[in-house]
Design a protein that fits this description.
The chain is an alpha/beta fold and 231 residues long. The chain has one domain: Ribonuclease Z/Hydroxyacylglutathione hydrolase-like (Metallo-beta-lactamase, Chain A), CATH 3.60.15. Helix content is 29%, strand content 26%. The strands form three sheets. It has a seven-stranded mixed β-sheet. A four-stranded mixed β-sheet has the order 8-9-10-13, covered by helices on one side. A hairpin with a 2-residue loop joins strand 9 and strand 10. Helix 7 runs antiparallel to helix 8.
């Protein structure tokens, strides 16, 4: 997948993905069209060319910028500069860190956004976590996309530079769609509770696409693969 280029994750193009480089590796941004025609952008990309943001500016604009955790904040300032009326949201327990690491951006608790979202869009903070990392669901037509944060990843060698790839390898992170033990060490307190919570959420709205924060979209045998790694 080329970097810094939007691609559709659903057949109606109302959920889109963007892969970008943040230095040591790649990460993903997901954009979801809301009922009012504006976009909710999850994990806004960093160092994107102006034309990347203009695609959404010319197609309804952006109203919400979601930091799924307290680490994915690098693109917030640039996106807020282009979309000054957008509101930045983050999980409540991540607000203190974000206030120190991204002081120029005022974040609101994500619970305020959740209260306004249509039923076709959901934001979940799984159980069993010591630091928040949100999962985001978007259902449109027959498609349901789950953004799975840092913990469920689907990376290839192209998504990581040499040192992160070596570190991942030490923990059995050989790539592919997996429960990634390296970020899990940062985020997860109780792996059993986390997996059960995610499994329940995904079973309630079965995924046709899983879009991780890092790596490629999972589009084949999605539920079978997801059930296996959450077992």
């Amino acid at each position: 997948m080329p970097l810094q280029a939007w691609h559709s994750l659903t057949s109606d193009h109302n959920v889109r993905g963007l892969k970008y480089s943040f230095g040591p590796g790649t990460a993903n941004t997901m954009a979801v069209r809301l009922d009012d025609g504006t976009w909710m952008v999850v994990s806004p990309s960093s160092a994107s060319p102006a034309e990347v943001l203009e695609v959404l500016a010319n197609d309804g604009g952006v109203s919400a910028l979601v930091a799924p955790n307290a680490f994915h904040h690098l693109g917030q300032a640039a996106w807020r500069a282009r979309f000054p009326n957008a509101v930045s949201y983050a999980p409540e327990s991540g607000l203190k860190r974000l206030a120190s690491k991204c002081a120029a951006v005022p974040f609101r608790p994500v619970s305020e956004l959740i209260a306004k979202l249509p039923s076709a869009v959901g934001i979940v903070e799984p159980a069993g976590m010591k630091a928040p990392d949100l999962f985001v669901r978007a259902t449109t037509g027959a498609d349901t996309v789950w953004f799975t944060g840092d913990i469920l990843s689907n990376t290839t060698d192209e998504d990581l530079s040499a040192i992160p790839r070596f570190v991942m390898g030490l923990f059995g992170g050989t790539g592919g769609y997996r429960y990634n033990k390296v970020p899990a060490f940062i985020y997860v307190k109780d792996a059993k509770a986390f997996k059960a919570s995610v499994a329940a959420a995904v079973e309630a709205a079965p995924a046709t696409v899983v879009y991780p924060a890092h790596g490629d979209a999972v589009t084949e045998n999605v539920m079978a693969q997801t059930r296996a790694l959450l077992a």
